[in-house]
Structure formats: structure tokens, C-alpha cells
Amino acid sequence: MLEDYLDVWERIDTGQFTSTVGRVPRVRIAQGLETALWVCDTNTVTLLPSAVDASDCVVIPAGESSKAWTQVEMVLTEAVRRGLDRNSTIVAFGGGVVCDLAAFAASVYLRGLRVVLIPTSLLAMVDAAVGGKTGINFLGYKNMVGTFHTAAEVRICEDYLLSLSDPEYYSGLAEAIKAAVLGDEDLMISFEKEVPRIRDRDLEILTDICRRSVRVKADVVRDDYREHGTRAFLNFGHTFAHALETVAGLGSWTHGAAVAWGMARAVGLGERIGLTPPEHANRMRAILDAYSYRTGDAGVDVDALIRAMSQDKKRLEGTVRFVLSRGVGDTVVVPVETAQLRDELLYAGTK
After folding, report:
1. How many whole angstroms from its chain centre is CA 221?
2. I want to staple 262 with a disulfide (CB 3.0 to 4.6 A). Which of 164, 240, 310, 323 is the partner?
3. DSSP states of 127-164
4. What are the CB-based long-range contacts (under 8 Å, 24+) for 278-282?
């Protein structure tokens, strides 16, 4: 039974699929998946469980540049070579890039194979592996091509977080801060009061951060799996972040660092248009500052950022909409005039 090895945190029933998310001890992370097609990258291949032979895995180059058709073809080619059928499973073992890419490949092979995600980065544990979105980058734009394909299981083991570089760790932490803003006051308080423990990667508090972040995202996804409404809230900070990543060059900023910068811009924009209370904006800035995120000058051209935002997936009838926050658990999506957007970007020191 699933519960024999998985401490279930959430079950997400989309009406068509059910995804089970939970914690698994490292020694049992590969249980039942030994014969699946495993996908990892050049970093996580060294972390593979002993039951999995690295020579049988699809190993892609580590980094954002691997979210591309070339690597999708690598996975699909191996699936064909092995003769995978509709009873087969593809396993993603890695961070957000590996999870997004492998799940996308699984979604298009034979019109959909079972996929199990084993996230090894904090970003993937709290965000990328949960909720059924898959994707690759295209023509320099972030996640421009993708599908909805729910993982049968998401197996989380916080031990892997101790292997992350500081940039990757703080990248994931930004997504957890976003989850707190969207709907968990207690998690916000933890980010304010537990700074030393969080910076030191205390596994007890990281388990709580992961569990709470997953709960916030699961609640949103259950309500709006296909992103026709409230799921857009999960993009708080992301309209700015994706534009920054595109203009600066995909991979030059970690995704979470860009999201942190984007959240700072979002609360600034919200203040500017009279939507975000100053005390909430200042609270957000204080949390971002406590973890040393870059929130000022991004060193990129304002007009280039605005052009990149014009390709944002939340645009509607040619108007870019922004996810803004009025307080913890109080999120809205609103259109913003270009002049107001430009003022916020100029105020941030971008040039």
C-alpha cells in the first residue's frame, strides 16, 4: 500500500486524476519504481538511490537551458527504445527543470504515461512538483510550451536539501515565502521569527515549510486545476520574474531569486495603485531583506522588461494582468496601466 512508505500530506483530486503528495524516507525513495524510466540531471545523478542504475537513466545537462525540445527528445527516444507502454512509469529525480521536463515528456508520450516526481530541490518540493503543470521554455520565453499532467505521486525527502548550493536553496525559499503570502499566516510568522534556523537549513523547520507550502498550493489547485481563475494567484511575483529571466537571459538569475525580486515589485506596484496596504508591503520587504534577496536594481532595461511582460500567459485581450496582494490570503489579479508599471520599474532602480 502507498501508506506503507509514504507519509501522505495531501491528495489532490482533479476530477480526472488523483495526485498523492507526501514524505518518504530516503532509504525507500525508489520503492516500487526500480523498473521505471528515470530522468535526472548531471547534478542529481550522483544522488540516485542504490536501487537505480545510473547507466539506465536519461541524464540531461543541469540548468535552465535543458528545458528545451532537445532534452524532451532524449526522454522520448529512450521511451521508444525501451518499448514503454501505457502501463509504464517515468520518474523525475531532480529539481524544477527535471520535474517540468520529464512530466512534459510523459504527458505527450502515448498521450500520457504515469509519472512520479521525486523533487530534490526546495523549489521543486514546495512548488514545481505539485499541481500538474509541465513545461519547457521556447524562443527565450519561460514555460511557453506545456501541458497539464498530474503526477501520480510526489515523493518528498528533505534530506536532499542539505546537498543544495546556497543559490538553489534560497531560490526555493522564495517560492515558500510566496506560498505563505497566499494563505498561511503561521508560515509568514515562521519566516519572520525563525530566520537563523531557516538559514541554517534546520530539517525540522524545513519539513514544516514544505508541508505548509504544499498545503497552500494543493488548496489552490483543487479549486482551479486548469487556471481559469484563482490558480493565477500562484503567479504572485512571477509576471515580473519571468520577464526578468527572459531579458537577463534564462539561467542568469535563479528562478526563485527572480520571484523574490518580482514579489518586491508586486507589493510596490500594489502600493502605487492604492491596493496593497503599506504595512503589508513593508512586512514583505522585511522578510525578503532577512534572507538577503536582491530587490532593487536588476540591471536590465525597463522597456525590454515591459516588452517581455506583453508575452505573459495571464494577458487577456492584449492587456497584461498582475497578481497583487492586499494581505496574507487576500490576492487579486488586476490590469495595470503601462505608465504605472514603468514608474514602479524605474523606482526599483532598473535602467
Report:
1. 13
2. 240
3. IITSSSB--EEETTEEEEE--B---SEEEE-GGGGGGS
4. 280/325, 280/326, 280/327, 280/328
- Please tell me the pTM assigned to this model: 0.93
How many residues belong to the chain?
Answer: 351
The Cα 198–Cα 202 span in angstroms is: 6
In the block, residue with C-alpha cell 480526472: 16
Q: What is the band of 351 on the pLDDT scale with cuts at 50, 70, 90?
A: very low
Query: Cell digits for 278?
Result: 503599506
Set of cell numbers at residue 26: 530516503
- Tens digit of each residue's pLDDT (9 = 90 or more) over 54-95: 999 999 999 999 999 999 999 999 999 999 999 999 999 999
* pLDDT value for 317: 57
H/E element holding 203? helix 203-223
Q: Which domains does the chain have, with CATH numbers?
A: 2-164 (3.40.50.1970), 165-351 (1.20.1090.10)
Q: What is the CA radius of gyration of the chain?
A: 19
Per-residue cell: 73: 527528445
